[in-house]
Amino acid sequence: MTARATSLETGRSRAPRTARVQRLADRYLLLVYTGLAVIYLLLPVAIMILFSFNDPAGKSNFVWQGFTLKYWLHPLAVNGLPEAVGLSLILAFLSTLAATALGTLIALALVRYEFRWRSATNSLIFLPMATPEIVLGASLLTMFVSIGAAPFFPLWFGTILIAHIMFNISFVVVTVRARLAGFPRHLEEAAMDLFANEWTTFWKVTFPLILPGIIAAGLLAFSLSIDDFVITNFTAGKTQTFPMFIYAKARIGIPVQVNVIGTIIFLVAVGAVALTTLAQRRSRST
Amino acid sequence: MSDKKKIPAGPVVSRRQVLLGGTMAGFAAFLAACGTGGTGATSEPSASEGGSVEPSATAAAGATPSAEVNWANWTYYMDVDPNDPTKFPTLEKFTDEFGTKVNYSEVIEGNDEFFGTIKPQLEAGQDTGWDIVTLTDWMAARLIRLGWVEQFNVDNMANFVANIKETYKGTDWDGEMQYHAPWQSGMTGLGYDVDTTGELTSLAAFFTPDPRWKGKTEYLTEMRDTIGLTMLSLGLDPAQPTIDACDKAVAKLEEAQAAGIVRDVKGNSYAEDLKSGDAVLAMAWSGDMVQALVDKPSLRFRIADEGGMLWTDNSLIPKGAAHKGTAEMLLDFFYIPENAAAVEAYVNYICPVDGAAEAMIAIDPEIAKNPLIFPPEDILARLHIFGGLSEADEAYFNEQFAKILGVG
Amino acid sequence: MGTLLKRHRWIAPLALLAPGILWLLVFYVWPAFQMFIASFWSGSLETGFTFSLSNYTNYTEAIDQFSEQYLRSIVYAGTATVLTFLIAYPLAYTIAFKGGRYKNLLLFLVVAPFFTSFLLRTISWKIILGDGGPFLGLFKDLGVLPEDFRLLATPIAVISGITYNFLPFMTLPVYVALEKVDIRLVEAARDLYAGPWRPGGAIVGALLGGVLAGVLGVVFAWSWPLMAAAGALAGGLIGWLLVSESFVRVTFPLSLPGVFAGSLLTFIPAIGDYVNAEFLGNPETRMIGNVIQNKFLTQNDYPTASALSFTLMAGILVVVAIYARILGTEELSTGGRV
Prior knowledge:
Helices cover 73% and strands 0% of the residues of chain A. Chain A is mainly alpha-helical. The longest helix of chain A is centred in the N-terminal third of the chain and has 35 residues, at 16-50.
């Protein structure tokens, strides 16, 4: 292959002026575009972080009025906020555990085995991701109401948990499956030839190798759960999660502390991803 | 009856613990709650807690307050400590005096939504978990009509009986004040930016495509306020809301929307838009405007010549409440003028307590003079209360109004 | 146990699948069925609900009454899907082919907004798009825009919000599909189609440009035939200059499964969105999601709300079935990578 600094898809010969434009375009246009796209993607995040330092005179946080750190010093000093955040964290944690376990098992089954209901399973995994959240939430609400008895009714923390596990499973399956795809089966076979039964092989060979995928899936499930509003709104009853708290406050004025908490969650998530990437890179280089 | 001595186990405690659980303690409580079969509706009806369901048979004044009491209210409706927004000074004063912990939750964001959360238990005759709920007139009327509200034992509520303003008595849904204690009232009128619109005195402004406010006008999502004001502008009486009046009002609103006058129909967030200039005219509530005027001095609030709406959020004790007696004491506490004034200094709506105006002079003379918080008689005379609706009529009004909201 | 598993080969996959699939069956499939039942109820929350097949009128009435919102939802979701495609595709392409060392970082940046609350992001857009905000305020000061121009409380703001929220859902499947493309095919195509004439790019560019400009013309009430012609010309020129033949003939077709997956994951959920319409729009931009939310949570009108919901559900099932037929079901649960 001849060394070529430009993209893969330039033609070989053409009229000089157009060629120059095309070459410049090939080299720089996409990069510039990507830069702009990244700015577009991160702009609302930047605004959210910026306004966590705002010092509004009234109840609303829409106009920049001055810089202050005081909301960072007392991030939970709003009635109902600590409870809502705590509830969201517990929900996210529990639903991530359950969904990651259930989803990983499904992913393993789909990758390793041939079985008759494969198409149906694939479709069933895909459908919750494609269904509008309002339909997911509303249908669960209808079911809970028509059962009309505990533990499904009245709506409480448990019904939210059920909903979160449900929608997280699909995302876990897709993420883990993507990682399982390039999985070196021969390692497993070697292990089994050597000494191990299926169980040992799984824990000592398979599991460590797919762990990054499982962690990625877990992170995704955690973010989806902590951020979910629509489905939670339908299945929460009287309890209030962090997104529901924001929605309720949005009518009058979102306290600055909400931006602070949002920024903290964002930074923690970024940190978690950075850590796992670093860990992966280190383990790969050993 | 010693229900006030007992600390009810079961639903109330476990639910509160779940809500407060940001820690492993909360998680453990959740596990415990799982074991007892969930929150809210449990298998044993709360009547087993010692007769808290019986209406006026409970003890006279001087009964022992319970260890805690649960109050569901709207946001920004209780005075907060300016240095620590999680503390409510007047509630703490109550706790200091009576020893009862007040679990105050600002979870109500809409009458219908909240009703949806308590309806199942009330239907089943169970404790909702709330001892006090604060709901708007029409929802309070509905609950009372359905028989889901405890009757007050007025022996417990001397201050309430003495200090409730006369204007609140005589409603057709609880004229004797036996089921509801007004918490805050508010006026609905014209909110506008005088620099852009000039002085406005008539409701006709809402329906005129004047270039100064065309496309920058906002209506309220509260059906009774928007339709009420529209009826007033048509010369109809909101105290007699007929189907015909509804049709006329909705037609006029639709016309205004089609003419491009209306930017949006929203709840309290209209105040945002008035402050930022996205809107210059809105159907506004007096309490919001008190604060908005401070943030943006060119804003004005006025009751139009045709009149304005008066609405009230009322505290009720749901049937089956576990701490009825203490709830009555708590409600009565806020009918002491100093306490009512303390709340008013923060909330800025209209106080239903006689004597609060005088008490306010000691706290903040500026507020005592503010006509939006203590309106003079001539303004009060121009205010109308939306009439009661039957269930069928209410459904009709809501359905028609949904067209204005874009979801009908 | 090993021999047990070997002899009954169906036990292992069943054991693995059972818990998760059971959960989905009970809490996704069964509720959908329940909603179907509820759509045949009549009555109210106060008086109780009764089932009757004659209540199929719930469907006919609901669709009749809310046809405006249904149509609007489809148009908004469709426009948002096209926009996400246009924004996401070049992004995914760059990451896949030019990403090199920075691939993971770029992918992370694409997904990063997800780590903030969806509501906070939408409210941030409200701040950005405010009438006197940083964006519009600047243009108004420069005199480019009239004083009473606004983006909030218009369809544009709502569609922009939806587009933004669903961008990762389009970017990731497209990226995965592009990554799978065999470089050697592309290079062969490059050799084959070398030359200054890039009709492929020109045609595609012209079509896209024309359609987009025409739509803009309709939205802003400018003359749409003129806009479409101008757009076609501009698009064609840009396409000819920038888009290589090998891309049009080889790369793009190979990435189609990802494009389809991304479109499905964007279009269908977008139809049911209501938060964007609520925060960024006004009564004239309300979508079917707002209606369903209002019916369920405010009016407690479960029968109508269920009928509306289930209609959406049925639409999804049809679309997914078509997709599965064309591309097979393997793609569905792999995010594009088999």
